[in-house]
Amino acid sequence: MRNLASIFRIIALVAIAWGGIELLFETEPGQLAVLAYPKTLIFLGVIALVSIAIEVSVAALRFTLFKSLSEEKQEKFLALENKQVNQLKAKFENLPKLLTRSRPIEEEGEIELDHDYDGIRELDNKLPPWWIYSFYASIIFAAIYLVRFHVFDDYTQVEEYKAEVAQAEIDIARYKETAKDLVTLETVTLMADPSDLEAGKQIYTNNCVACHKADAGGGIGPNLTDEHWILGGGIKNVYRTLLEGGRPGKGMVSWKNDFKPSELQQVASYVLSLQGTVPAEPKEPEGEIWVEEIE
Questions:
Q1: Alpha helices, DSSP H only, in the chain?
Q2: Are 34 and 41 in contact (CB under 8 A)?
Q3: Which end of the chain is more exposed for a tag (fewer CB within 10 A), N or C?
Q4: Mind listing the domains of the chain with CATH numbers?
Q5: How confident is the chain (295 residues) per 10-residue block, as mean pLDDT?
Q6: pTM value surpassing 0.85
């Protein structure tokens, strides 16, 4: 019994620590913090080890103190402990009776009513306490609800719905501000942060220089530094080209299966940051001069 209690305490401490991690660390909806931040597993492991060490130390100290007692006192201690265990067992065994107020089969004759239908007897059993208290609670709840919403005219269901929709729209907007991978052709914007441009440069260097050269002067692919664009300039058009690929049969493939939307936004922004630079061997202009329309 004591070992079982120690196990429960260890599990409880680890569960509390886990709950604290989930509350303190922000994650995407539906994602566990311990998975998003693997280092927190080390913290949980430390908590588990410390809990085990404490339980082992307490058990060792208890055993040492027990051995220091005389035989007579050891017997009294064991008798007291067994008494406590038996009392606890008795409470657990009596729990079903407390919850249901049922009578033993041997005593059913005392609560039998004078109703007999084809051998089916009716007993005057008392309703279970949990059922009675739940019924009373429902009556109290109904009374409060009646007074609040029908006497004092608190908010209606329509007002509650509109408030929840408004809050949901706020939450969605806040989520979209930080969820970079929700970028679409309609929402993509030009990025100017140096860290984003550096990330875009790394993607460009690893995947685009073979066709466009390191300085974007153009090789197999067109020059990306001049004003001429085959499929249109600007962040939306460049992003669409990366997302869907270029003209059929011209070699420019779709990168949507290789990179996240946020990464495509970064490399598109980096490409546009090269506008006006002077490459070593610029390729002849291709396409038409693109001028961004002012909305």
A1: 2-24, 33-36, 40-68, 71-100, 129-146, 157-178, 194-207, 209-212, 234-244, 261-273
A2: yes
A3: C
A4: 2-100 (no CATH), 194-289 (1.10.760.10)
A5: 78 91 79 84 91 90 86 85 82 75 71 74 78 93 93 89 93 77 84 93 93 90 90 91 81 88 92 91 88 67
A6: no
